[in-house]
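To: structure desk
From: M.T.
Subject: fold request, one chain
Message: Could you run this one when you get a chance? Sequence is below, nothing fancy, just the single chain.
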Amino acid sequence: MSILRIAICDTNPIELERYASLCQAVCEQKQVQAEFATFPSSGALLFQMMHPAFASAVSILVLEPFNGCEQVAAQARGYGYDGIILYHSIVTDKRYFYEAFDAGAYNYIEKGGMARFEAVFERTLKAARDLERQYLALRFAGEYRQIDLRDIHFFETRMNHMVCVCYTGGEFLFRSSMSELEARLERGFVRTHRSFLVALGAICQITYNQAMLSNGTPIPVGRSYYATLKDALDKWCQI
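Reply: Done. Structure tokens follow.
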């Protein structure tokens, strides 16, 4: 199962730590693998959101729409974020509800009710998992495969314009190009080499010339791809 990336933004440091701890506890209780990034200001969050690799990796965005965070959801959507947005606030001003609705927020929770936040966050985790249940339909030489994107480890270019997808359960050869695949997949995958497109969630370690996947497979890293690859992964490590 892939790792959920959860970003939490709150200008109150006490509340930021409080809700981040609660979210972590819920994930542990539900046995959901998750990584967390916390932001004390909207500027810090939006700076990261400007990077496509970060925006595409986040599954859940928890926002306090007050003291400068009001426009974060709309701007995050503008940067390409298409994951779940969860509002939580001490205020009940109608304008925040309208902004939440306009940005496609999943829910709006008034602060103070920890039990309700926990219940809504549990449903949010399920919704995030449901959104991840996307499939890649492939067909070649009369054979058809429908592969869960979460099961894909990497794609490798082979000879004669063929690509091999390696996923949990096996491999499948089909006709395509890496540029076509990148356009089709949109998020969650990164080029490590001219011949390899790898699932971000499958990478556990990288060096200057190799990426090690969680299933033990080594993948080559081309010199011109290393900086982009490292930047995509470091967005979570440096916060």
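Reply (cont.): Residues 114-132 form the longest helix (19 residues). Let me know if you need anything else for the meeting.
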